[in-house]
């Protein structure tokens, strides 16, 4: 019985690629150094899968930024502003598209479906001259072959690539991206031909757009694309992989009817209804790659349950046509539990990171072939039972408090307009008030202080003094820049989510459970293993300290909403004299189900949870929330329903797409701060550029509700970038205030 992995984490078990990328970007190492680190990581990954017994090992899933940008490079679809003159695309052009450079901004970045991973959005139009400009897929296949590992090269499928793109600036929004299919397929043919010549026997096309609600003409594009590729694909086994949700019945019919395709991959974790479609009729003689091991979480697989499903599928498709697989790429989970020696033993037994999921896939394949590892399955069954019955999972007080929430929609008593009036009397802010999103640069010295405190190399008093000094520095910088609503910079937090998780019960923490978010940015999500509660105040000490250093309003900074725990914290901050409290809800759009029929239930639940966090505060306490890097236009009415006083939201990197909903007549009465510059790029925007952005906002938003702020927190930037950018931001706000005053 064969086994398959859709894709694998690329950062390395200790974030080796992250550090190599940042060293290269900072000019501290060469392109050759970066290539050496990445080659070593690829070699290690391929060997690991080969040693584990995996038959179908992926290649070309390793990206320096993301796999969609890799495809843009492969197709030579470089926007004109990057002045690329043809030939093989090098690091300069590739990273300029991803991060921008001194003279031009980066391309838009958005969430990859409903995950916390991001991709660079292709910018396409009728005049794009496509060309075969990156041979990475073939190079990586040959590289693996040279190491004695036969791999399945993975390409983002041509139709999904186009549907994940957007029209270039200046191109009509009604432009049909699918009209470019005849222009990109010749390049796919070149890549396929080279892979065949290099000896590839399998190729994998990732077509995740097939799980979305697609109109018939979009489904027809898949049929046309693979019909056109059929002759080139002749002689290859072709896998079309889908993931993240059930595949709709019409899409299933389209997929299983594609010409030249020999295998279909399905996510059977988030696509349980797909099982019914397979049972209802699977094409004879085709391979089924059954995604029964979850690529998106860190829980151990229920091996007995998976084996039951696989046995049933085997009776439908045949023993030699069933392949055990992951539900999607393992990119979305942490790398290896072996790097977690301090993790609680019981909780650790419940977990499986990427390396362990590879072993699970192999164990299931062997069990299906009659070579079941009884000891492995027995240990897994014991861990499954332990997780279901462990007393640490359920907290009776939390259960009672949650039950008591029923029957109320938890809205604040006064409408937002009246609240904003009350807040303005108290805060006395100018029009177009300026603020930042929370974090300030995390310097090497600051990281060292936190590391030494954690290792007990410095005392608590020394730690508090060091953090106090850092907060004082950040407050002083903001006052000198003349920012209106300040933040304390979050120097005590390595990662916001991790920081809160460490102070809440029901969470466990890893030492190296890093997951890539975008580029070199990794997050280390805490593990929620049980009911969550707040034993004591989490931020009041630092926020009160920061407020004591300035007469200006200081924002309390929270991540949300673990509703009941955050509600307690909000009310404690208010009692401590913090009049502006930001409750981040960065992942609200990210969690939106992929299928429209499931949207309403999710949004009602998520928005209600947010309202619970702040329903008890006074009218004069201003509640902010922040969202970043997603398409918010389709949920704008739910955002309004959150009933926050002010929302700060990503805007600058997506060509101010957010503003279009207001142009189309959506009325927004609360405060809003669409980001005026992109913090994920090292580029420093000019005062005029920011003023131009603010003017575009003023064309569709009332002056008295508009805030001026960056897109997101500043922790990943350097002070040499942050200070001049904020200086220009404040100058732009003041320039517009003067112009507005003289126009009266």
From TrEMBL:
Question: What chemistry does it catalyse, as a reaction equation?
Answer: 5-methyltetrahydropteroyltri-L-glutamate + L-homocysteine = tetrahydropteroyltri-L-glutamate + L-methionine
EC class (word): transferase
Cobalamin-independent methionine synthase MetE C-terminal/archaeal domain mapped to chain residues: 562-734
Query: What InterPro entries does the database record attribute to this sequence?
Result: Cbl-indep_Met_Synth_N, Cobalamin-indep_Met_synthase, Met_Synth_C/arc, UROD/MetE-like_sf
Q: What is its EC number?
A: 2.1.1.14
Report the cofactors: Zn(2+)
A Pfam family hit: Meth_synt_1
- Keyword annotations for this protein? Amino-acid biosynthesis, Metal-binding, Methionine biosynthesis, Methyltransferase, Transferase, Zinc
Per UniProt, residues of the Cobalamin-independent methionine synthase MetE N-terminal domain are 3-316
Q: What does this protein do?
A: Catalyzes the transfer of a methyl group from 5-methyltetrahydrofolate to homocysteine resulting in methionine formation.
PANTHER family reported for this sequence: 5-METHYLTETRAHYDROPTEROYLTRIGLUTAMATE--HOMOCYSTEINE METHYLTRANSFERASE (PTHR30519)
Which family is annotated? Belongs to the vitamin-B12 independent methionine synthase family.
Q: Which NCBIfam families match?
A: met_syn_B12ind (TIGR01371), PRK05222.1 (NF003556)
Protein name stated in the entry? 5-methyltetrahydropteroyltriglutamate--homocysteine S-methyltransferase
